[in-house]
Amino acid sequence: MVKRLFIIWIGLCFVVSLAGCSGEGSETKIEKVGLLVPHTINDQVWGTKGYGGMLNIQDKYGADIFYKENIRSQALAERAVEEFSHKGITLVFGHSSEYAEYFNEIAPKYPHMHFVSFNGDAQEKNTTSLKFEGYAMGFFGGMTAAQHSSTGTIGIIATYKWQPEVKGFVEGAKFEREDTQVITSFVENWDDTEKALQLLEQMTAEGADVVYPAGDGYNVPVIEKLKETGLHAIGYVSDQSDLGEDTVLTSTVQHVDRLYLLAADQFARGELEAGNLYFDFADGVISLSPFSKEVDKGFQQEVERYIQQYMETGELPNKQMEVRNHE
């Protein structure tokens, strides 16, 4: 009898042991994570937020983090990834859209590693591109700019035409004030401050009094120039009210640091999918920063309601208006 109970006890322990290998026990241990950035982690905008995401992963998983700056070519990326592989890194973040293309070439050589980029086109089974749905944030930024403009003319200095926040900004402005004139210009480079400032001078000469610099490399100098001239801005990527609370009406914030941790959590659970993944307000990785006191209180409350409705229904107010007009 004692022998039978002992056997049963051993069997139960074996079952419990197996159970311990599923659920939380099946999570991949994140020990080492790598980061590639095209410029620096000290730019106080995009690069800094990426490094902040690495610190979040380190804090939660106790992982060692490694980063390499100024990785701006396929050859440099390949060399960095080879070094990461020798260090035992299994999760690599490339902090820009160009890394998707680099990783598509590199990834098949390192099947034990998973490669994550941003706003690109991931094509390999161990590559993922995380994409911010920029249209809605641009829409609410455009509404704010149009509502606050005294001249009826506002501007957006974007980097590329493909940025969804460009169309969102224009349509949000038109939704708020149909007669708003929106001047749209493109820098064609994330970091060309000189060209961005030239475009700013042109659009302010045409009467633009609120400008949305939708590029992380040049937005700070643009906002500083707007502050000097007493004009206003919509901040980009991070809450930029520290550049001037009276100048920055609100900011369209991309919480890159949160998205890093979200991707790492999925990787740890074995749930990080290959391909292109999209994230928006409802995922907690995009938001508007608190409004400046310069912005009308009633308008602030209206936008906050619209954002809440968008998070719940996935519909922006212009689409809701279209539905009502067709009923």
UniProtKB/TrEMBL annotation:
<dbReference type="GO" id="GO:0005886">
    <property type="term" value="C:plasma membrane"/>
</dbReference>
<protein>
    <submittedName>
        <fullName>Positive regulator of comK</fullName>
    </submittedName>
</protein>
<keyword id="KW-0732">Signal</keyword>
<dbReference type="InterPro" id="IPR003760">
    <property type="entry name" value="PnrA-like"/>
</dbReference>
<keyword id="KW-0449">Lipoprotein</keyword>
<dbReference type="Pfam" id="PF02608">
    <property type="entry name" value="Bmp"/>
</dbReference>
<dbReference type="InterPro" id="IPR050957">
    <property type="entry name" value="BMP_lipoprotein"/>
</dbReference>
<comment type="similarity">
    <text>Belongs to the BMP lipoprotein family.</text>
</comment>
<keyword id="KW-1003">Cell membrane</keyword>
<feature type="domain" description="ABC transporter substrate-binding protein PnrA-like">
    <location>
        <begin position="30"/>
        <end position="319"/>
    </location>
</feature>
<feature type="signal peptide">
    <location>
        <begin position="1"/>
        <end position="19"/>
    </location>
</feature>
<keyword id="KW-0472">Membrane</keyword>
<dbReference type="InterPro" id="IPR028082">
    <property type="entry name" value="Peripla_BP_I"/>
</dbReference>
